[in-house]
C-alpha cells in the first residue's frame, strides 16, 4: 500500500509539472524564468500552494489572493499523473511507456485549453515509441509502414475536416505501439467517453485527445 501511495504522489508531482509545460508551451513562455503564479491576479504562489492535490483541497479550489476558482484541469493533471505512475513496476524499458503516458497528459491539457496540440509533442511521442520498439527488438515492417503513413499525414492532413489535428496522429501512433486490436479497443473507449462528454456539456467542439489518452491507460494495462 505504501508503495502505491509513494508512486501516486510522485506521479501527481509530475502531472502538475505537465500542466506547467502545457500552459507555458501554448504561451511560448519559458519554464525557468517565470515563477508559478495565479492566472487571474498574477500573484506568485507560495510553496504550500503548490502541493499536488492537497493545496487544491485546502484552498477549496480557489486562489488564496483573489478567490477566483482554480481551473479543474490542474486537479485532473495531478490525478492523471498519479494514475500513470501506478503502472510502474521496476526499472526497465517500460519506463518509456510511462513517458508516453505523461506526454499524452500534456497533449490532453493543451487540447482541453486550446483545441490544439503542438507538433513537437507528437514528434516526441513518435520518437519515444520508436525507442521502445527498437530497445525491445519489436520493430517490424508493420511499424515502418504505419510510420510512413503518419509522416505522409503530416505533409497532407486530408482528414482534418472531420478529425482534430492530433486525433488521427495518435491513432496511428497507437497502432505502431500496440497493434490494430488494442488500438481499436483504445479508440472505442475514447469514443465512448467523448459521446458521454458531449451529452453532458453539449459543446459543438470537444477535445478528443483527453479521451484517447484515457484509452491509452487500457493499452498500458494490457502491455504491462
TrEMBL record:
Domain of life where this protein originates: Bacteria
Pfam families: A24_N_bact
Occurrences of domain Prepilin peptidase A24 N-terminal (ranges): 10-86
Alphabetic keyword roster: Membrane, Transmembrane, Transmembrane helix
MF GO annotations: aspartic-type endopeptidase activity
Transmembrane segment boundaries: 95-112, 124-151, 171-198, 205-221
UniProt KW Transmembrane helix keyword: yes
Keyword Nucleotidyltransferase: no
GO terms of biological process kind: signal peptide processing
A GO cellular component annotation in the UniProt record: plasma membrane
Name this protein carries in UniProt: Prepilin peptidase A24 N-terminal domain-containing protein
Organism: Secundilactobacillus collinoides
Amino acid at each position: 500500500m505504501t508503495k502505491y501511495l509513494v508512486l501516486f504522489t510522485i506521479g501527481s508531482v509530475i502531472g502538475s509539472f505537465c500542466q506547467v509545460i502545457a500552459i507555458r508551451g501554448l504561451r511560448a513562455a519559458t519554464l525557468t524564468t517565470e515563477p508559478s503564479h495565479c492566472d487571474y491576479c498574477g500573484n506568485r504562489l507560495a510553496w504550500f500552494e503548490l502541493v499536488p492535490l492537497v493545496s487544491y483541497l485546502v484552498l477549496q479550489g480557489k486562489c488564496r489572493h483573489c478567490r477566483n476558482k482554480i481551473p479543474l484541469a490542474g486537479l485532473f493533471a495531478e490525478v492523471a499523473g498519479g494514475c500513470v505512475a501506478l503502472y510502474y513496476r521496476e526499472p526497465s524499458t517500460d519506463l518509456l511507456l510511462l513517458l508516453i503516458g505523461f506526454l499524452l497528459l500534456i497533449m490532453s491539457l493543451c487540447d482541453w485549453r486550446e483545441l490544439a496540440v503542438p507538433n513537437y509533442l507528437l514528434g516526441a511521442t513518435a520518437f519515444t515509441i520508436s525507442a521502445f520498439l527498437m530497445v525491445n527488438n519489436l520493430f517490424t515492417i508493420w511499424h515502418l509502414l504505419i510510420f510512413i503513413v503518419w509522416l505522409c499525414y503530416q505533409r497532407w492532413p486530408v482528414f482534418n475536416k472531420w478529425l482534430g489535428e492530433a486525433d488521427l496522429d495518435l491513432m496511428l501512433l497507437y497502432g505502431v505501439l500496440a497493434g490494430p486490436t488494442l488500438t481499436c479497443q483504445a479508440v472505442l473507449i475514447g469514443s465512448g467517453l467523448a459521446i458521454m462528454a458531449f451529452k453532458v456539456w453539449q459543446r459543438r467542439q470537444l477535445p478528443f485527445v483527453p479521451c484517447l489518452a484515457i484509452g491509452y491507460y487500457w493499452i498500458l494495462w494490457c502491455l504491462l
